[in-house]
Amino acid sequence: EAEVAQSPRYKITEKSQAVAFWCDPISGHATLYWYRQILGQGPELLVQFQDESVVDDSQLPKDRFSAERLKGVDSTLKIQPAELGDSAMYLCASSFGYTGELFFGEGSRLTVL
Amino acid sequence: DQQVKQNSPSLSVQEGRISILNCDYTNSMFDYFLWYKKYPAEGPTFLISISSIKDKNEDGRFTVFLNKSAKHLSLHIVPSQPGDSAVYFCAASARNNNDMRFGAGTRLTVKP
C-alpha cells in the first residue's frame, strides 16, 4: 500500500539550531500539506502545495519557517532558528486532488531543548 | 480560531457497546467533513467522511451523522472493539479549498 514517507521520525535539537524535515508524498498526489500538531491539540495547517506552488502558507511563521517543493514531488520543511515552542509533531499529508481525504505520514516528532 | 471543536477530550466505553463521538463547527462554508483515527506514534488515518448534501453515511461499524442546522456531527461506532481505542479527530473543509481544519481530538478507550 502506498504511503507518505517522512524523515526523521524523531529529532532532538537545542534552541537556535536549524532543523529540517523531509516528506515524500504518495506517487501521483499533486497536493502536499505540512501540519503541526502540538500535544493535546489537533493538527494545524502550516503550508499547502499544489504541485510546486504554494497555495496557502498563511499560518506559516515565515520569520523562521520555510518550505519548498521544488520539483513538485518531495518537500522539505525547515526551521531556523528553532525555539522551545516549536516542540511538536510535524505531519506531512498528501491528496490526489485539490480536495478530498488526506493521507498522512507517520510524522516527525521535534523536541527543542 | 477554533472552527472545529471536540468538547470531550476522552470517552470510555465497554466492548460491544456504542461509542458516540461528537464534533461542532462554526464555519458555515464547511461542506465536507471527515473523521480520522490516530494511534500513538502514527499519523492520522482516514476513517469516514460525509458531504453536506447528506445527513448520514455508513461504513460497516462506523456511521457519521451530520446536522447542518446545528452545525454538529457525530461518529457512532457499533459495536465498539478494544482495537478501536485511539484518538479520533473531526475535520472539516470547504470543497473549493482543502484547508482542512481539525478538532482537538477525543481519546476513545474501549474496555474489554
Could you write a compact summary of the structure shown?
The complex is a heterodimer of chains A (113) and B (112). Helices cover 0% and strands 49% of the residues of chain A.
Describe the structure in your own words.
The complex is a heterodimer of chains A (113) and B (112). Chain A has 113 residues and is an all-beta fold. Chain A has strands at residues 5-7, 10-13, 19-24, 31-37, 44-50, 53-56, 65-68, 75-79, 88-95, 103-104, 108-112. In chain A, a hairpin with a 6-residue loop joins strand 7 and strand 8 (75-79). With 112 residues, chain B is an all-beta fold. Chain B is built from no helices and eleven strands. Chain B starts with a strand and ends with a strand. The mean pLDDT of chain B is 94. The chains are: A mainly beta (113), B mainly beta (112). Chains A and B meet through strand 5, strand 9 and strand 10 of A and strand 4, strand 5, strand 9 and strand 10 of B.
* Main beta sheet of chain A: 7 strands, mixed
The helix/strand order of chain A is EEEEEEEEEEE
Largest beta sheet of chain B, briefly? 6 strands, mixed
Number of helices of chain B: 0
Taking the alpha carbons of the first and last residues of chain B, their distance comes to 38 Å
Instruction: Output the helix-strand order of chain B.
Output: EEEEEEEEEEE
Total beta-strand segments of chain B: 11
| Overall helicity of chain B | under 10%
In round numbers, the mean pLDDT of chain B is 94
Structural class, from helix and strand content of chain B? mainly beta
Secondary structure tally: strands of chain A: 11
